[in-house]
UniProtKB/TrEMBL annotation:
It is found in: Cell membrane. The keyword Chaperone does not apply. It comes from Romboutsia weinsteinii. The keyword Membrane applies. GO terms for cellular component: plasma membrane. This is MgtC/SapB family protein. The lineage of its organism: Bacteria, Bacillati, Bacillota, Clostridia, Peptostreptococcales.
Length: 217
């Protein structure tokens, strides 16, 4: 493999990693522009080294050209795990972690010289990250419903949390604000049926406190 070919593969890996990282960067994800470039470049380098070693020593030693790349993919798992965060609203960062792993795979494909596979895979990756996310957001919006509870008695909050736990209802974007002498709880249901949610609101309304309920689908 000549120096020109190596240069082309590294530049292509840099471009693909950079553009993919920009999409994550604009959404303020943990792994962004530079991280994706480094992942793509590193994977490409490992593939080039594996291929060069195989071509150079296959006559005198039994070498597996995919062995080094396999170790890279295993190592990417640790990097991806660092982008996953468990919050009160659920688990975040899974898409970014999967994107890092996919970017590494594309970098490996470039390193081995599979340009068509790498570019088509990259296009599909961008479609998933940039286009399909709107379909996913629309689906989640249809499933989720928001609630605003205005509470005059602070002691009602533990009981509300108990009801959520008893009914196994998950919430996201949970916020508590203080307005005058009242507390305002804002959250979005993340699971459960329409009947479960209405049952929850009925139980909340039965608490011995004056609670104003605003429910939006």
């Amino acid at each position: 493999m000549g120096e020109k070919e190596i240069f082309i593969r590294l530049v292509l890996a840099l471009i693909i990693g950079g553009v993919t990282g920009i999409e994550r960067e604009r959404l303020n994800k943990f792994a962004g522009f530079r991280t994706h470039i480094l992942v793509s470049l590193g994977s490409c380098i490992s593939s080039i080294i594996s291929l060069e070693l195989f071509l150079q020593y296959n006559g005198v030693a039994n070498l597996d050209p995919a062995r080094l790349s396999a170790q890279v993919l295993s190592g990417i798992g640790f990097l991806g795990a660092g982008t996953i965060l468990k919050t009160s609203g659920g688990v975040r960062g899974l898409t970014t972690a999967a994107g890092i792993w996919s970017t590494a795979c594309i970098g490996i494909a470039i390193g081995y010289g599979y340009y068509f596979l790498a570019i088509v895979s990259w296009i599909f990756l961008l479609v998933v990250l940039c286009v399909l996310k709107y379909i996913d957001m629309l689906y989640k919006k249809k499933r989720s419903e928001s609630v605003v509870l205005t509470i005059k008695d602070n002691e009602a909050i533990p009981r509300i949390m108990e009801i959520l736990d008893e009914m196994n209802l998950d919430t996201k974007k949970f916020d508590i604000e203080k307005k005058s002498s009242n507390l305002v709880l804002k959250f979005t249901f993340d699971n459960g049926s329409k009947e479960d949610r209405m049952e929850f609101l009925g139980k909340v309304a039965s608490i011995q406190s004056k609670i104003a309920i605003e429910y939006t689908s």
